[in-house]
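Quick board copy: two proteins, each given as sequence then tokens.
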Amino acid sequence: MRTIPFVKMSGAGNDFVVIDNRAGVVPEPAASFAARVCARRAAVGADGLLLLERSARKDFRMRYFNTDGSEAEMCGNGGRCIASYAARIGAASEQMEFENLAGDFHAALVQGGRVRLDMTEPHSLRLDVAIEIPGRKLRVHYINTGVPHVVVPWDENIELAPVQEQGPIVRRHDAFAPAGANVNFVGVIDSGAIAVRTYERGVEEETLACGTGAVASAILMAYTGRVRPPVEVRVRSGATLIVGFRPTEYGASSVTLEGEAVVLFEGELNPPAFGYAQF
């Protein structure tokens, strides 16, 4: 019986199951496989599944699946983790390029086990979007940093932000239909630092970190004059991500995301345990 080698990785608190799928070891449809493997308490458990696959143009192709099995365009912390993994298994050097649904990316391993990822240029900026949710009116901002993000400025205690209560409502609001959006509650610490709590689409709960959310939050807080780049982003796990960028008229360019990417453990998946009798 064949097993599937994997590593469990964390990027600032985002945790992933990472698999070298260049030989096609993951059974299709990969979405169903992702949902089974990422289920907490019933399997390995993770915020998502990262597959490293062959690319005809770049060092490799990254595919990312959320916990619910939906395939996402991009995941910033996932991109940093898979870059570290690619260098670890010899699929790329310490400077690398990879492709995914959001475009082409450059990543570099930097000192201390950290990874710096060059992000795609954000787009679809919308400021001061007025929305109504039960019991409250909100003015929020929107930007796509590889995936869509809503930023909710939060001037009160960020620890008391109603992420789990209001996050799913804003995430599915008609203003962001049909794709929906991730929702970030953002507090400003000082002119160079913010605190972010994210309700993540596809995971459908608050996560300990979100890379593209950190990028969206830093850019929008800078765009509205609250901070200046580079911005330290303190995420729910307690880790700090660094977002660098050059402000522009329509958002930002030269966007980078830097932070830790660590291997937690490695092992082998037993496909029959996830319902794959013939493998």
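And the next:
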Amino acid sequence: MQGNVTDSVTSIATIAEETAALFEEVMRRKVMKLNIKEFADKGIVSLGNMYRIAKVMKKAAAGEDITVGMIGGSITRGSLATAPKLCYAYLVYQWWVEKFCDSHISYVNAGVGGTTSQFGVARVDNDLLDFDPDFVITEFGVNDREEELFKETYEGLIRKILMHKTEPALLILNNVRYNNGLNAQSIHNAVGLEYNLAMINIKDSLYAEIEAGRIPSANITTDFLHPNDLGHKIVAQIVINALEKIYDEVFCGTIPNIYRMPIRTITKNRFMNSVRYNNKNTATNSKGFIADLTKQDSIQDKFRNGWKAGKVGDTIRFVFTGGIISAQYCKTIRNDAPIAKAVIDGEEENAILIDANLSNTRGDSLAIQDLLVEDESKIHTLDITIVKVAEESEIDFYLASILVAN
């Protein structure tokens, strides 16, 4: 009798799984039958001044080599896509390849998970601009917040890209959190409008369909943040829809004969010349902090080229010229990581604690903590010292880099 009960339970479980799988497939097909163009158009905030992108498209159409680059967070990197070639960034690149088949088109994906435009502006030279891109997508919509700080860091990133010697065309993409619709599109688009750039909002297109009940969120994301393969495909098609419109204007319409970048900025623009200092490009005076010389596999291998320490009293000193100084460090979910303090110019009374313990369970993150924010740039000393270590803890405090701006 027991065997029959077990078989019956197994049968019910199997039927439930098969029913769920069938429902998911039905809904997936329903999503794929949607006319994406209908809601893709709603995501276009502006096509911007098309002079630069026209130059890129005409260059590719003439059979010349071009480079397509992306910089952003984990969505750009391709998180939850089952293969790198299934993420939105690669699918958009593939559009260029298929559209301009006589051109050799290179692809640079500078997406790094869990990072904001504050880090983006400090790393864009090494991770993207050194490859001399002709066309760039920036995507920090779900990592930046609607705060003046990120409006300023984002403007710094935009200006730095636009001022690169290749004069790249630039498109702003704002992804969205699918559980609550939050993103930073208001501050990003304020910058984009001032610089007359192409801008696309996923909140006003794909997410609007989810809110209206026409697309189940479970079909395009499992964590309500990162798109799955289908989600990446839809995001890519929304971007491609805008590129197709630009293409039609470039080859069949009228485009501007010049692009003028604004001379004045809409923020203080203190971050445009941000520099990331690590053990590869800066000297230190340290006691107990050891340089991490492990080879970095790629830019996604985030916790490399820094310094680590694990004993109370371990200290490291830097000397920088700047007005904004930030510590970039590993924040871990292990919850027994050391705690450090940062002291600027020997002012112990203004010491700032740097707690490397993380309360959520998503995974270790590359955190940024601002230590000094001033308008005036001058020489400063920075001392970081370990002040607390949990008993029997084997975790080191990992200082990945120091970001210096202005």
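Board note added afterward: The radius of gyration is 24 Å.
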